[in-house]
Each structure stands twice: as C-alpha cells, then as structure tokens.
C-alpha cells in the first residue's frame, strides 16, 4: 500500500471549518465517484458507492477531516498573537513548539508557540511569537484575528518498520483508510449502498457526523476514528497497542453500541482473520455520538486506529493498522445486507 497519500493528508492544514486543503485531496483521490459528491452546510463531503440491487440498505463510514489546532484571537501591541484552542490540544504540546499560521490569502507564516501558567500551574494563555515587534508589523504580514494556526510538523517514516509519525493523525489516518477502502470497491457489486463521509468540525463538537447522518439517513453508521495509546503501558489494560490492529469500541460516554452490531463486527473480523482489539473510551466521543441519535436512532459503532501521542505535534501510527482498517471497511461493505440490518434492529 502506498503511504504517499497519508503523508499528503498529514501535512495538509485543516482545523474545524477550515478543512479545504484536506477536502481537495480527498476529492482528487475519489474522483471516480465525483458525480455522487454531496456536501453539508459546514463542508463535510459525502461520497456514495451505489448497491448492485434495488432498495438496498445504506452503510455509512465517517472519518473527520479537521485536526486540533488554534485560531488567532488577540494581537498585542508588541506583535504577539494570542490563541483560541480548537479541540483538546495536549497541555504538554503548548510549550516551545514551531507552528504555522495561514493568512486569508493563503500565505504561511511560522512562529514559536508558548504559553503562560496560572497560579496552579495550569495553562493560562497560549501565544505565538512570529518575530514581530509591533501590532503594525503583525498586520502587515497578512495575519489577523481568525487565522488558522497548526503545528509545523512534517510527516516522516521512523526507523522502526512500518511506523510513521506526523501531525493530524487524528483523524487523517481514518481518512486514509476510508479513501483506500472506497478505491478498492470501485468496481465491486455490493448488496448495500456505501457512503463515505469525510466530516467537518468533529474536534469542536462532533458536528459533521450529526449533519451527514441526518442528510443520508443511513441504516448503520460507523465512525472511523482514533484513540490515544498509553505509550508507557504495554500490559493487558492497554487495549490500544500500536500494531495490534483496529479497535472495536464497546463504550464511550456519548454512545454504547447496539450489541447485535458489535457481535456482527466481531464475527466478521474473526471469520476474515482480521486482528482487532476490544476497547472502551473513558472519556470523549466521536461522530457516532451525535450520528446515532439522528433519524429516530441509528445503530452505530466506532472502529478506532491506535495512536501514540494523539493531539500532539507528532502522533505515531502503524502502517499495518491502517491497512487492516481499510481491509475491514472493505469486508464490511460486502458482508452487510438487508437481512443483517433487519436482525440488528429486532428488539
């Protein structure tokens, strides 16, 4: 599998409501489906592979385009830009980092991100020093309030076999796996409609999942997302081991999946010899948390990719996990049918 696409996705800059660079890559990669492209009002992209039979159920897979990052909020008289966080950036990542901001005209300006602490030692203010000495210099550069700021990290392959590092792996790894799966099924005859949704504004409230689910009204919804691996714990309570295969999520605080759907997932993976991990989120949620409440309730589940250092300037991922996730999506597209969906909804 060619991972040049993952590099392109990781290096692209796109925070909530500003995902155009990522969306452009996805549209190019899935041009085969261009006549099916749909968008919600916040920029989420929906791509459809139609079933080979009439009146088929619809299975939706959603991966979000936006990354955690910042927005310029204030400009001081000495030319410092103070930031608003977009998503839950790790506190350890808010000190002495090289970042890049993008002006309204697409110019990229690099600077050093730092932060101040309050009396309790918690982050108080996050700011960027671009090297300016006045507000006038700051504005002359083209930067202004509202401009996007992201970590200036570049994708790379590490010395360890099949291990990569880069920014925005949450959720560009999910986008990558979903793109590859959609490419693999281009010419296949399927018993279901498959919709790939590349959602916007997930990191600030799982908004794209809700909107795309409302528009498509799928019979089954899957969030293809990530979870942070506790990097120093390799014991039995770490169910997010990098290289251990995708995670099937049994719980998060926004959704508990339909048990019949979870059973079908496990049986399908087992029969297909797909390695997977059984995981639960202690906190947080995904697009499935809002999507499963649309259209009277939709059977939903989360398929996760394990990452180390999620929401940091660099995350570590396994190429093997991404390939396995892509294969699992492809297999599910073939294994679902009307009978399977009907049984999931028998209460």
Automatic annotation (TrEMBL):
Record flagged with keyword Zinc: no
Keyword ATP-binding: no
A single GO BP: proteolysis
Superkingdom of the organism of origin: Bacteria
Named cofactor requirement(s): a divalent metal cation
Keywords on record: Aminopeptidase, Hydrolase, Metal-binding, Protease
Gene3D superfamilies membership: Peptidase M42, domain 2 (2.40.30.40), Zn peptidases (3.40.630.10)
Active-site annotation: 202
Cofactor detail note: Binds 2 divalent metal cations per subunit.
Binding residues for Zn(2+) 1: 64, 170, 225
Name the UniProt record assigns to this protein: Aminopeptidase
Organism: Lacticaseibacillus thailandensis DSM 22698 = JCM 13996
Organism phylogeny: Bacteria, Bacillati, Bacillota, Bacilli, Lactobacillales
